[in-house]
Design goal:
Blueprint: E1 28-33, H1 40-54, E2 60-65, H2 68-71, H3 73-79, E3 85-88, H4 91-97, E4 103-106, H5 114-125, E5 128-130, H6 135-138, E6 142-146, H7 154-165, E7 174-176, H8 182-194, E8 198-200, H9 215-228, E9 234-238, H10 250-259, E10 262-266, H11 273-276, E11 300-307, H12 318-328, E12 337-339, H13 344-347, H14 349-358, E13 364-368, H15 387-405, E14 409-412, H16 421-427, E15 434-437, E16 450-453, E17 456-460, H17 468-480, E18 487-493, H18 499-511, E19 514-516, H19 519-524
Parallel strand pairs: 1-2, 1-3, 4-5, 4-6, 7-8, 7-9, 9-10, 11-12, 11-18, 11-19, 12-13, 13-14, 14-15, 15-17
Antiparallel strand pairs: 16-17
Helix pairs in contact: 1-8, 5-7, 5-8, 7-9, 12-18
């Protein structure tokens, strides 16, 4: 296992190491507004135009407005000199004039995973993606590859793809993406096409009667490919859930990926990734905690971690909005810890820089979830004959990524029990000062809330709640019974948490004699002095 410090080859901070990207960084940007386009076929076609166009080495890139959050970034990018200019082109008609080809991979939804296969093929063939054959005459397209009626099942389509296009696929990553919902699939589609990324889906319980579905065989065929044709310890983009019964679901999906040593980068609704990923990786340093610990005036220290794992989509719109509310609050001057997958510095470098410049005063960024990407350490690499080497590789990548992103603490889940080998391995990561574990309650009592491995402080979550009111209620009970530990963490799920909630929590803690500190500061108060 990973009990000793590994020898890590230094990485060049100016190079991209984990996030595939093709094309030159943007200077001038062509903007097409897709917010009113609801037709799935048009959205998929538009995304494929963007992906193929952004493959080019020209500094001119396409940027699609899928939602209002996409609008805010363009003026900021220009004002901060990431791009020199941007101009609007007129919807689908103007966008199709920018298409680098008039050839298309044409498919329908029978079998229904064929959209993912066709998207992968479109990238390999440098052809547009047409999921509605009626769009071929409408836009005067030429059929390059016709997949209509070619396959009887999803498995047959995957086998055909591996047999005919395996040598053309990107081997640095894979993707799991719902093949039929425009909100999820089209948003990420430009990136998948641009980088020729093998994209798959596993049928869920509500999808078993759809054309071509056979979940057992899909898992067998896809799993065999993930194991034999793609390296261990690479990212998987997208998300394995598309509503209850649609896809394997978060838990089962992460387990499947973990068995095959593919860490999830939750990007199912990440817009314009073929644009964002072409910027040079950021090499800026994170802000350091700035609040002094007031000794003698408080009995308890606590860190508040706001997260929903490594969902990097939150940095595109959710967190900036939340931070704006906190910065405007007169009483919002207190530390909050936020999780950020360390690959954001490669995935969308300007967003990484924005986060550094806009995080509320005293805030802290740590790696989540579970290291370089979302995974289950309990399940990691189970399908490999040399599992210990695969685990070592993941932890080594986490160490490298956290070092480049300047992150000093981890937020992890699905890591076994306190004192287990998983925690010991995580604690062996050089440069990490604190580990915070859980997603809501992860230990049975407050007495189990803290442990130490070497010089790393580990804080387990003993609260049942992940919302402000619930946490406040539990703290009140623990204070009354004198069982609240002197050092502990508070986890809040970012969805639904508002700036007002965080301000109220800070005031509640102050009244209860609890000082809020960063995870780094929390760890420093329990580690022995040098």
């Amino acid at each position: 296992m990973f009990l000793a410090q590994p020898h890590v080859r230094p990485l060049n901070p100016h190079q991209r190491h984990w996030i595939p990207s093709v094309g030159a960084a943007p200077r001038s940007v062509l903007v097409a507004d897709m917010r009113t386009v609801t037709d799935v076929g048009l959205r998929n076609l538009a995304a494929s135009v963007e992906g193929l166009y952004n493959q080019g080495n020209s500094g001119k890139k396409i940027y699609l407005l899928w939602s209002d959050q996409d609008v805010m970034w363009l003026p900021w990018l220009k004002a901060n000199h990431y791009i020199s200019s941007y101009k609007t082109i007129s919807g689908m008609k103007g966008l199709m004039k920018m298409a680098p080809t008039n050839e298309a991979v044409v498919c329908t939804d029978s079998p229904f995973h064929i959209t993912d296969v066709a998207a992968t093929l479109a990238g390999c063939k440098h052809e547009l993606l047409v999921t509605d054959p009626n769009l071929v005459p409408q836009f005067h397209l030429k059929v390059g590859v016709n997949l209509v009626g070619k396959f009887q099942s999803n498995v047959q389509a995957y086998k055909w793809l591996f047999k005919n296009e395996l040598r053309h696929l990107c081997r640095q990553s894979v993707a799991i993406s719902a093949p039929y919902t425009p909100k999820i699939h089209s948003n990420l589609l430009d990136y998948l096409v641009a980088n020729r990324i093998f994209t798959f889906w596993l049928s869920g319980s509500a999808e078993q009667n759809l054309p071509g579905a056979n979940s057992t065989q899909e898992r067998k065929v896809v799993g065999n490919a993930l194991l034999k044709e793609f390296p261990a310890n690479i990212p998987c983009f997208g998300y394995p859930w598309n509503g209850d019964g649609y896809g394997p679901g978060e838990g089962d999906g992460v387990t499947f990926l973990s068995h095959h040593a593919k860490w999830l980068v939750a990007t199912d609704t990440f817009d314009n990734l073929s644009f964002w990923s072409t910027f040079a990786p950021s090499h800026r340093k994170l802000p350091k905690p700035q609040f002094a610990i007031i000794r003698g005036s408080t009995q308890h220290l606590a860190s508040v971690v706001v997260s929903d794992g490594d969902n990097l989509c939150t940095f595109q719109g959710w967190f900036p909005t939340l931070w704006t509310g906190l910065r405007k609050s007169v009483t919002g001057n207190f530390p909050v810890a936020w999780t950020m997958g360390p690959t954001l510095r490669e995935l969308a470098p300007p967003m990484f820089d924005y986060a550094i410049d806009h995080i509320p005063h005293g805030g802290s960024f740590g790696s989540g979830v579970s290291g370089i990407g979302y995974m289950s350490m309990q399940e990691w690499g189970k399908d490999y004959p040399h599992r210990s080497a695969v685990i070592h590789g993941f932890l080594q990548e986490t160490q490298q990524a956290c070092s480049l992103a300047d992150e000093k603490w981890l937020w992890i889940m699905r890591y076994g029990k306190p004192g287990g080998w998983e925690i010991k391995d995580y604690a062996g990561i050089k440069g990490i000062r604190a580990i915070l574990g859980g997603y809501g309650r992860s230990v049975d009592s407050p007495q189990q809330g803290y442990e130490r491995e070497g010089r790393v402080s580990i804080f387990h979550d003993f609260f049942n709640a992940s919302d402000v009111k619930g946490v406040e209620s539990e703290i009140t009970s623990l204070l009354a019974s004198h069982t609240l530990p002197p050092r502990f963490q508070i986890f809040l799920m970012n969805w639904g948490t508002t700036a007002a909630d965080l301000v109220n929590l800070s005031q509640f803690c102050r009244r209860g004699g609890i000082q809020l500190v960063s995870p780094e500061q929390l760890a420093s108060q329990v580690l022995p002095s040098k």
